[in-house]
Structures are given as structure tokens and as C-alpha cells.
Design goal:
The protein is an alpha+beta fold. It has three domains: about 70 residues, Orthogonal Bundle (Arc Repressor Mutant, subunit A); about 60 residues, Alpha-Beta Plaits (2-Layer Sandwich); about 80 residues. It is built from eleven helices and seven strands. The strands form two sheets. A four-stranded antiparallel beta sheet has the order 5-6-4-7. A three-stranded antiparallel beta sheet has the order 1-3-2. β2 and β3 form a beta hairpin. α9 packs antiparallel against α10. The longest helix is centred in the C-terminal third of the chain and has 24 residues. It starts with 5 loop residues before the first helix and ends with a helix.
Length: about 260
């Protein structure tokens, strides 16, 4: 039986259930040959706790373990519904800057910082976002070498264009759609592999692949409020199918590591 690393176990912990009792957790790690003994199970717990990926409450047989915010972040768990359901006040936040060609390094740093947060590029050096940008800009201005000629403001009203046209222009929906469609296309194979998984190590491998595919599907998605989502948007279907996969994972995990 293949040895599972701590990341594999964290994946099952995150994607299989939100809380584990001590017996259930021990059953989980005991599914790997290398972790079959209580001492190794304790080492796994200590490692995950020391890394602040899980925390414990209760004592002895009543002990339970919960995933921490850092653990969820480590597992790249994404809940797009929180963003889709975020109310919108109808105003766009706009960031503009003008960096000369001679300072291309600084311009690239700024572009990468804005792009990594999935802000929309309306046109050259004009970026937009539907929500408050204060915290994001505070993080970005810490970047070394950030140009001084950089500002942000709120645009409460549009003219000569619609919100739908702004959304269509500012994000690469062709690529976003391709990534969602890739996930949906390969999900059938992942579900088949999940149902065939006969060991926890195999189950962890399938869960890890699913997590990576799910994260990739939303990696460029700005997760706009529902009122701004474009026609033909596949993110909602991706989220629904992913939820179905998690239900199957729960079922399979209960069979392989019963409480």
C-alpha cells in the first residue's frame, strides 16, 4: 500500500469532512500502511497541529479535530457562492497608472499584483473591480519599486456603455469558460476513479486531483456578483458538480474509514 504524505491526509480531511473525532481520525490515518500504529497517527496529528493546519478541542476520547483557516487555504478550498452572493452597490472601483517604458520592471510587478487578484483589465493600465479595493491596494503598495503615479477611484455611473459590456471586455471569458469546461469534461473520469478507489491512499489521490482541477477551473474567474455574471457562464455548474463529487467522496470515505 502506498505511503501517504501529510498533504494527502489533509486533502481527505478538508474534502471529506469538516470535523473528525479522535477515533475517526485514527481510522483515517490507519488506512495507510506507514501510519497503521497509534504512534505514527499521533505524529501525524502533531505535525498538522504544529503547522496550524488543524486544531483540537476536548480531551482523550472526546477529542475532536477541526480544520483551521490556514488549513482551508492550504487545501485551496474555494466557495464561489460567497462571492456570487455578495451584494453589489452598482459602482466600479477603478485603478489607473502610467509607467514609462523605461520602468518596465515596475510595470510588470504592478500588472502581476493586480492580475493575481483577478482584477479586470478594462484597457491599457486601467483596471476595475466591483467591490472595495482598499485592502487589496494596501497589499499592493507594499510591492518594492511600485511607481508613485498610481491611483484608484470609484465610478458610480456609466455612460456610452453597459455593465455587461464592461464585464465582457475586462476579463478573458473565453479562457475562463475553457477552464470550467475542462473541469466538467473530465469530472466523469474522476468520479469513476473515486468509485473504484479501494484504499484510503487511492482515495486521497483522487481527492487531490479533484482539488487541483477545481482550483484550476476557478483560477482566473473573478467570481463576480450574480447580477454581473455573463451569459453562458459555467462557474455555477462547476460548483454544483463539485458539490456532488464531495457527496460521493463523503460516502466513499465513510466506507473506507468508518467511525
Amino acid at each position: 500500500m502506498a505511503r501517504a504524505n501529510y498533504a494527502d491526509i489533509l486533502d481527505l480531511f478538508c474534502w471529506g469532512m469538516d470535523k473528525l473525532s479522535r477515533p475517526t481520525f485514527c481510522n483515517l490515518v490507519a488506512g495507510y500502511e506507514e501510519y497503521a500504529h497509534r504512534r505514527q497517527s499521533t505524529q501525524v496529528l502533531l505535525h498538522l497541529e504544529q503547522a496550524a493546519l488543524i486544531n483540537r478541542s476536548g480531551k482523550k476520547s472526546a477529542t475532536t479535530f477541526c480544520i483551521t483557516a490556514k488549513g482551508w487555504e492550504r487545501a485551496q478550498v474555494c466557495n464561489p457562492e460567497r462571492n456570487w452572493n455578495h451584494s453589489w452597490d452598482g459602482a466600479w472601483r477603478v485603478v489607473v497608472f502610467d509607467v514609462p517604458e523605461a520602468r518596465s520592471k515596475e510595470r510588470k510587478l504592478l500588472w502581476r499584483a493586480l492580475r493575481s487578484r483577478n482584477l479586470g483589465l478594462l484597457q491599457r493600465s486601467v483596471w476595475i473591480w466591483p467591490h472595495d479595493l482598499t485592502q487589496i491596494l494596501r497589499e499592493i503598495i507594499q510591492v518594492k519599486g511600485l511607481p508613485e503615479n498610481f491611483c484608484g477611484f470609484t465610478a458610480p455611473e456609466l455612460f456610452l456603455c453597459t455593465h455587461a459590456e464592461v464585464v465582457a471586455t475586462a476579463w478573458n471569458w473565453e479562457e475562463i469558460t475553457r477552464r470550467h469546461r475542462t473541469y466538467l469534461t473530465h469530472l466523469t473520469a474522476n468520479r469513476a476513479a473515486l468509485q473504484k478507489a479501494a484504499t484510503l491512499a487511492a482515495l486521497a489521490g483522487v481527492a487531490r486531483l479533484e482539488r487541483q482541477a477545481f482550483a484550476f477551473a476557478f483560477s482566473l474567474d473573478p467570481l463576480l456578483p450574480r447580477t454581473l455574471l455573463p451569459d453562458g457562464y459555467l462557474g455555477c455548474e462547476t460548483w454544483e458538480r463539485h458539490a456532488q463529487f464531495r457527496d460521493l467522496l463523503h460516502t466513499q470515505l465513510d466506507q473506507l474509514a468508518p467511525s
